[in-house]
Design brief:
Layout: E1 2-6, E2 10-15, E3 22-29, E4 36-40, E5 43-46, E6 52-53, E7 60-63, E8 66-69, H1 72-80, E9 86-90, H2 103-112, E10 114-120, E11 123-125, E12 130-134, E13 137-143, E14 148-155, E15 160-167, H3 170-177, E16 183-185, H4 186-194, E17 207-210, E18 213-214, H5 223-236, E19 242-250, H6 254-267
Parallel strand pairs: 4-9, 11-19, 14-19, 16-17
Antiparallel strand pairs: 1-10, 2-3, 3-9, 4-5, 6-7, 7-8, 12-13, 13-19, 14-15, 17-18
Helix pairs in contact: 1-2, 1-5, 5-6
Length: about 270
């Protein structure tokens, strides 16, 4: 597996899911060894766990007074589609939500193609199991020859409990994971907006559940847990290298993912 960057820049425009602010984001080819780096109007923030700020509803990075949030979808697509080095220029406080999934990013990456380097892609592997728990939530990282995710999601009605076991590679990612949309309960939306969140959310960019079920057609019966895997992949990009490990996640979210990414990096 060699290091790779984009063959040409990619540009995305839209609103942020939580801030509702307009944003333009450009993914730019970068030299081997760059990793994923955000350029926030002059402040460069490497997408690694040391700069992560714990947030229950999105992944956030901050440095030198600048921050950027809801970056998990673009990082997920970059990592899973084989990109190892890219500069992400963003002129707003939040990445555009687009359709609520990572499909627009993954499709664009596949269309523009990758330029491989002669250098090997950095890989993050573990030699023994590492586990974190937070109440009834847990995440375990195990040694493996490839990147695999097993996720158990347990949600309030009408969603319920769902499970997925998936080996991550570009083809599987595009067909089984990338299109899964972010989701919310209708009963929670007003409270979120009162707290200054979900200002850019709509039925066009989020899967919404009312008391009777989903308000839009599901792409898969377990679309919700597929989106949880999408998010986890983006959060594991904060390792700063390609994860060569198996991840078992039980009801976990962004906060637990960034915590274990930080601990793994600290362990070296």
């Amino acid at each position: 597996m060699n290091a790779a960057t984009l063959r040409a820049p990619l540009r995305f425009c839209g609103v942020g899911l939580h801030t509702g602010a307009d944003a333009t984001m450009e993914l730019r080819p970068a030299q081997p060894g760059t990793g994923f780096v955000f350029d926030l109007v002059g402040v460069r923030v490497p997408a690694v766990a040391e700069y992560a700020q714990e947030s229950p509803l999105a992944t956030m990075l901050a440095r030198d007074g600048k921050s950027v949030t809801t970056i998990e979808h673009v990082l997920s697509a970059l990592l899973a589609m084989g990109v190892s080095d890219v500069e992400i220029a963003l002129d707003g406080p939040e990445a555009p939500i687009l359709d609520g999934s990572a499909r627009p990013y993954a499709d664009a990456i596949a269309e523009v193609g990758l330029r491989e380097s002669a250098q090997a892609r950095p890989v993050f592997a573990v030699e023994r199991a590492v586990e974190l728990r937070d109440g009834d939530r847990a995440i375990v990282v195990l040694p493996s020859d490839s990147f695999r995710v097993r996720f158990i999601g347990d949600f309030a009605a009408p969603i319920g409990t769902h499970y997925i076991d998936v080996a991550i590679d570009p083809q599987v990612y595009r067909t089984e994971i990338a299109s899964a949309r972010t989701f919310a309960f209708l009963r929670d939306v007003e409270a979120m907006r009162a707290a200054g969140l979900a200002r850019g959310g709509s039925l066009d960019n989020a899967l919404v559940f009312d008391e009777d079920g989903p308000m839009q057609p599901l792409q898969w019966p377990n679309e919700v847990v597929r989106h949880k895997v999408l998010d986890l992949i983006g959060d594991f990009a904060l390792l700063g290298a390609y994860p060569r490990c198996e991840v078992i996640a039980i009801k976990s979210g962004h906060a637990l993912h960034t915590r274990i990414a930080r601990e793994l990096r600290n362990r070296g």
